[in-house]
Design brief:
By secondary structure, the protein is an alpha+beta fold. The chain has a single domain, classed as Pnp Oxidase, Chain A (Roll), CATH 2.30.110.10. It is built from six helices and eight strands, in the order βαββββαββααβαα. Strands 1, 2, 3, 4, 5, 6, 7 and 8 form an eight-stranded antiparallel sheet that branches. The two termini are 19 Å apart.
Length: 199
């Protein structure tokens, strides 16, 4: 990882995990990788997931609980001519934020802990509320039937590629092209590269 893109600020990392709708969980069985996109919620730096109690994913985790989880926020794709007028293809790039979490998966069996974890998932994905608290007895059967598991981190790394290493000339050229193209993603990217330029 290029040091200039490495992010250590825990609040920035927490913001990505809070905003991302899903991430990719990578697990492994008999030296064969298996990855799948999942909804999740971060609680006290642990990553919680839910699903059925049976299936390929659960079988793999029971045999090997080591896992890696990645989350990416994608921003503007920058064609090479955004950075140079020489015709060189190599400056073509993509702006993004990413977090990778390595650790071990643990199953949550305690009913109260499961109810609490599922409540955090609901709060993340249905912020407006409009549902009965998961402490309500109506949920007991479904909570018991649901598998809740968490990734306990042993390493967290983050990388933001937002033009932090750009020369003044390249920064100005890219900024101007983003303004001219002017999509909502471009304007968001422009605000971010300006923000990280100041840091």
């Amino acid at each position: 990882m290029r040091k200039i893109y490495e992010i250590k600020d825990e609040s920035l990392i927490e913001n990505i995990l809070e905003d991302a709708e899903y991430g990719t969980l990578a697990i492994c069985s008999d030296s064969k990788p298996y990855s799948l996109p999942l909804n999740f919620v971060a609680i006290n730096k642990e990553i919680f997931f839910h699903g059925g109690k049976k299936g390929k994913k659960i079988n793999i985790i029971k045999n090997n609980n080591s896992a890696s989880f990645s989350v990416v926020e994608s921003y503007s794709l920058l064609p090479s001519y955004f950075s140079t007028d020489t015709g060189n293809a190599s400056p073509a790039t993509h702006m993004f934020k990413s977090v990778i979490i390595d650790g071990e998966i643990e199953f949550v069996e305690d009913y109260e802990q499961k109810s609490n974890g599922l409540a955090f998932l609901m709060q993340k994905y249905q912020k407006e509320g409009g549902y009965k608290s998961l402490n309500d007895a109506i949920y007991k059967k479904i909570i018991n039937a649901t598998c809740l598991y968490k990734l306990v981190p042993n390493e967290i790394s983050a990388k933001f590629h937002l033009g932090q290493d750009y020369s003044e000339e390249r920064f100005n050229r890219v900024s101007e092209h983003l303004k001219q193209r002017g999509t909502s993603k471009d304007l968001k990217t422009l605000a971010l590269i300006q923000e990280f330029r100041k840091n």
